Amino acid sequence: MYTLIQRGHFQKFCAARTHYPSMAMTAISLAQLTLLSKSSIFLCRNRVGTFNFSVAFSTSSALSFSNFSQKKWRQPVAASVVEIGGLKIAKEDVVRDDPTNNVPDAIFTKLGMQLHRRDKHPIGILKNAIYEYFDKNYSNKFEKFDNLCPIVSVKANFDDVLVPADHVSRSDNDTYYVDSQTVLRCHTSAHQAELLRRGCTHFLVTGDVYRRDSIDSTHYPVFHQMEGVHVFSPDDWGSSRVDATSYATQDLKACLEGAVEMRWVDTYFPFTNPSFELEIFFQEKWLEVLGCGVMEQEILKRSGKTDNSAWAFGLGLERLAMVLFDIPDIRLFWSTDERFTSQFAKGELGVKFKPFSKFPPCYKDMSFWISDSFTENNLCEVVRGIAGDLVEEVRLIDSFTNEKGMTSHCYRIAYRSMERSLTDEEINDLQNHGIVC
């Protein structure tokens, strides 16, 4: 049951916080790490469109995304320069008036925060534990990189890892473009080819990655990933009685498997073959925490390693940290509330998070007509731009197509602060910033 928006007034209802069952974790090994938009705006590429809400789906005054202005909507941002790996990056370097640029101010504020380099943060604690695992089991063979610049070329992010020209991940619906040839990296694999060309054969790359995405408890437009690569020579598999691909596959799974409830799922990645996803059971559902596989020979050949084989994995640190630390919402990783940050200490992996708030959610529904250019990721970008991390989830709850072929969607937005109770007035104020009736 939902309420359509009328004249800027909203109905809301509150419910008790969902209880998240904890998942028991035992002593750590890499296996147990599970290797480990007073007008509303809608972004289409970098353009913004105004729209109105209907009283009902069938009225002619319904929301439309067909009129786009040329001005890009921006939210105020405090910092104008960040420093990463000794390089100073100005806001103007990332948030541009380039026609292909779709990086909002809110994303720029995340550059340089580098949660993975904070020893007392769950992401940093997890990274260090994985580093220790590889040091112990591979005699310090793996080189580690955790301060590489997240602004990379389209070539490095896509071409060098064999992502097809028509692949959906290249779309500006999925990727943050600085300009037509530069992006915020979508994965730490963006550094893979460069490091192979340098001669690296065993390496781990950790960093913040950026993807336009949906809004819920396990998705956020900025997260942290670790890339692992191990290159083998013919001498490694020569006496094993299996071919290079089989040898690399066996070694990969042996490295990543463990005692937690997990499963392997065959999948497709353009840069590995065969390819797998490793899933763990969390909050009563299977959660994919990493993708991996045997590296495509073409990538190795382009790097001068024509006779070699290799495996590679990409691990999402947040998802694994949510399991190990019992953290129920991905937004918490960005909290500066001492009630969160004080619960974790350097080297203490798997300390269970103690919730400090049980504030109820506030739900608001909105319906609108959609055009062919509509995407849910664009809607979520607008919602995040207006309400930031107060938004817990955006979910499609109804879809209707009339006799003229026009389609209307109804979305439910769940607001919930991790730190305090939200009032109906402030949520209505947020909604009114996004709506003209």
UniProtKB/TrEMBL annotation:
Keyword Nucleotide-binding attached: yes
Enzyme superclass (EC): ligase
InterPro entries: aa-tRNA-synth_II, aa-tRNA-synth_II/BPL/LPL, Fdx_antiC-bd, Fdx_antiC-bd_sf, Phenylalanyl-tRNA_Synthase
Key words of the record: Aminoacyl-tRNA synthetase, ATP-binding, Ligase, Mitochondrion, Nucleotide-binding, Protein biosynthesis, Transit peptide
GO CC terms, sorted: mitochondrial matrix
The FDX-ACB domain, residue ranges: 357-437
GO BP field: phenylalanyl-tRNA aminoacylation
Location within or outside the cell: Mitochondrion matrix
Pfam families from the UniProt entry: FDX-ACB, tRNA-synt_2d
Catalytic activity: tRNA(Phe) + L-phenylalanine + ATP = L-phenylalanyl-tRNA(Phe) + AMP + diphosphate + H(+)
One GO MF term: phenylalanine-tRNA ligase activity
Aminoacyl-transfer RNA synthetases class-II family profile domain boundaries: 207-355
The keyword Nucleotide-binding is annotated on this UniProt entry: yes
EC code: 6.1.1.20
Gene3D superfamilies with a match to the protein in the record: Bira Bifunctional Protein, Domain 2, Ferrodoxin-fold anticodon-binding domain
Superkingdom of source: Eukaryota
Family: Belongs to the class-II aminoacyl-tRNA synthetase family.
Role noted for this protein: Is responsible for the charging of tRNA(Phe) with phenylalanine in mitochondrial translation.
Full protein name: phenylalanine--tRNA ligase
